[in-house]
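Bench notes, bay 3.
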Amino acid sequence: MSDLGLELNDWLATLREEYLGGFLREGGASVKVAVVATPEAGAAVSERVLAEARDQGFWAAGVDAGLCKVHLLHNLFFEVARQIEWDVLARDFLRAELEAAGFRLPGGDSLDAGTVALVNDQHLTVVRQELRMALTRGLMRDPGLSRQFRLGALAICQAELQPDELRRELAQHVLSWLRGELPRIGPLRDAFIYQRIDRHTARTMLLSTSAFIRKTGRQGLVVVVNVSRYSLPKPIDDGRNRYSKAAALDMWETLREFVDGTDDMQGAMFVFVTGPEFLEDEERGLRSYSALHLRMTDDVRDRRHPNPLAPLVRIAEAGVC
């Protein structure tokens, strides 16, 4: 890894031109680590990356380890899910499927089958059959989405197409399940979902989320995660999350899994923001977990110029303002 700092504007330009504007749009994925000098710089980097992602047509979510124990991957997924407007995504997905099936779209947000039938001068039974086929083709048979995710998305879509009380209630239970706020799994039986989202299934749910977002016409998913608190040698007693060395190792293992799993992602970028302790602390930082250290280290590097395409970059303090 280079010891040279990279100006934030230069790094953002690289993300915009090489990743957000090209590689990710074509279905690629990337994991980046940005090392910043101060907590204030970390907040600035997170804000700028998220703003850039939104400007480029991505759904973006920011997560702070001070408030979310992200080394437990289901917590990371829940926090991302809380920042997604699932009903908006469902409507955009349905609009794309309806247009692909040759239907004219009704005005406004209403996509119930009766309105679609009226606008297209079709019998309601015919429209419902076409909609079932569209959901089967575009959602339930998509191998890029996990089974649990497909069933949850199906319930949300059905509540848009046939917004009766039972379907709306089931969709609300699914939303609570996605956000980690459903106390019991029982209410999801009608959606054929029988399992909570845990640290073992959260990864496939994240991958499915980015793939589904692309099906709605957006470019993909960008998540910025501030993990600087994991490598602090002396945790700050400020009422926010404090982490043990064991938790830090779990975090670096989770990060390593993200790096190794990029081939399974579609249109997704995960940016992990951390402080200088990540590079400097031998017991809690990068060097404490050799598997991640090997993946973050450049085999060849220029001694005079930092590499903006590297998986790990140092952001120059002067470049954060």
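Next record in the batch:
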Amino acid sequence: MPAHDVDELEALLAGVEDERALAAISGLLQLYGGALRRVIATVRSSPQLVRQLADDQAVGPLLVLHDLHPDTLTDRVGAALDGVRPYIASHGGNVELAAIDGDVVRVRMSGTCNGCAASSVTLKSAIEEAICAAAPEIARVEAEEQPAHSLVVL
């Protein structure tokens, strides 16, 4: 499912206030979640098929939603960073995972990206998009500042 479709659906769901409608939506989620659990249980014997489903742009986020994704959150965020690292390196920088705190991912940029005015744009456009695609449960991506190296004069 393209990101704009997910955004549109989330906006529509945020506007639902009727309790019966919310109960119906909740029931549908439980029904589809149960069906998806049965599908995954059936294909578990084929790791290649499970990987194919997890990597699918529409199915992967559903597996996350129903806690069925085969990869941990840390592994998915790490893979997303691995995917953007060549792009960051082409600009003389690097990015590493600093921490995951609940639904917030903190990354540390180094090289020419650290402190660069364009690094916030880089974070938004490349790193954040990659992380959110791999881990839709993440609400925010933040950049940590690299500690300044102190010079000791003797």
